[in-house]
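Field reference: sequence -> structure
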Amino acid sequence: MAQAYLDLVGIGNAVVDVLTHADETFLVKNGLTKGAMTLVDVDQAQQLYDEMGPAVEVSGGSASNTMAGFASLGGNGAFVGKVRNDQLGGIFSHDIQAAGVRYDTTLATSGAPTARCLIFVTPDAQRTMQTYLGASVALGPDDINEDLIAAARVTYLEGYLWASNSSREALIKAVQIAAGAGNKVSFTLSDAFLVDAFREDFLAFIRSHVNILFANEVEITALVGAKDFDDALQHTRGLCEVVALTRSEKGSVVTAGDEMHVIDAAPVDQVTDTTGAGDLYASGFLFGYTRDKDFAACGHIGSLAAGEIISHFGARPETTLADLLPAD
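Structure field:
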């Protein structure tokens, strides 16, 4: 087995988030489904961008958000994801490395521009996302560095990769390398629309290859075909070794074999923007996991990280998350 020198490597869509405040009228006028993530083409993305109010551009993408949070906690990690050699690609490359995450995926020099996610945050802190995947779907098996994956204790994969054939091939290659090295694989379902589209594929993949699964209440209920969360919880034990389920203000539930832990949400003075809450929960949980913490402690660290991210605009930490950790 290869000598592990990384705690975690994340693989996912490399996206630049463009965030703005919007009211309900804007969503209705533009036919946007509140609280959902919808894929759009380049023309739709440009039209919405033109209609947006003042916006903030910051590197995003589910797995890359997780890796930025992981680094802020003090973890040693790398990210694999594809951008174009354009302005937004430059922003992404700079931001992820400035966050303390290793990033050396080769930039695309032709084809679609860097992916962007237009995020409309309403006064109730809900985020409605319109995502143009652009260059991110060009990620393929050739972008997977075997030595990098083999050297990581845990490989973390986002469900969004399943939407592209080449990205899915990259995901499968990474899983095979991790398994061959005797390392763990973690997977997040990412979004309910993906579960609806790939439910049987996801179930087969999780049962065969995944050690640690992340999902929210809606996603896990859809995955196992349950009528509600309590029903879904009864179906999680046989899925994989560890299942961490987030429930917004209700906190989270972690199951592992015969263990079940109910974790309170971290107290937050004001919820400003829920973008990235699940991503940062995964940061905290995996940080604890790679530090050999018990599962309750892992969930608590996840809650702390998620609490920080929802207290401000955007999906990257504004404070050093390591400062939030309880003393050992």
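Note: The domain at 6-324 is CATH 3.40.1190.20 (UDP-N-acetylmuramoyl-L-alanine:D-glutamate ligase).
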